[in-house]
Amino acid sequence: MSQDSSSLHQGTDPNSPELFKRNIRNVQEQVIQLQTLARRVLSEIQNAYQTGNSPAHTEANITALKQTLQLVVEMMRQTGVGALPLLPPSTASSPPALPTEQKLLADTTKGLQVLYDKLQRSQESAAVAANLLSLENMAKVTR
């Protein structure tokens, strides 16, 4: 058991608002680390053919990125934070702007539309490939 998960059960109410806020801050910190690592990997991929860049180093960073992503996903799943939208961390001078229900609904609808469009394009591409294959098979049979 990891240190974080064992510390959750040491006299702290797992449903307390303080613990939930701490979990949110922890996830935000992990997401910032994830973003930093993703930017580093993207830069290494974009500059892959420049002298001095090591494919092994890039591969190691990609592996670290995948592991960090799994860690963040698991942390969000275990703490319940994953059900919430991610907001940028707030500073003392500027608290984060909370999205309205309409904005959340619009974002969700937009996300679903993007997924639907992607699925639709995939199905259309599969249909074209199937038609081409069936035409090719029909041509072989008629010869």
By DSSP, the count of extended strands is 0
How big is the Rg?
23 Å
What would you call the quaternary organization?
single chain
Biggest β-sheet description: none
Tally of separate helices: 4
Terminus-to-terminus distance: 67 Å
Fraction of helical residues: over 70%
Order of helices and strands: HHHH
Low-pLDDT parts are: 5-9
Structural class: mainly alpha
So what's the overall shape?
Answer: extended
Whole-number average pLDDT?
84
Query: How much of the sequence is in beta strands?
Result: under 5%
Secondary structure: elements and pairs:
Blueprint: H1 3-8, H2 17-46, H3 55-79, H4 101-142
Helix pairs in contact: 2-3
How does this model look, in words?
The chain is mostly helical and 143 residues long. Helix content is 72%, strand content 0%. The chain has helices spanning 3-8, 17-46, 55-79, 101-142. The longest helix is centred in the last third of the chain and has 42 residues, at 101-142. The chain is extended, with a radius of gyration of 23 Å. The model is unreliable at 5-9 (pLDDT under 50).
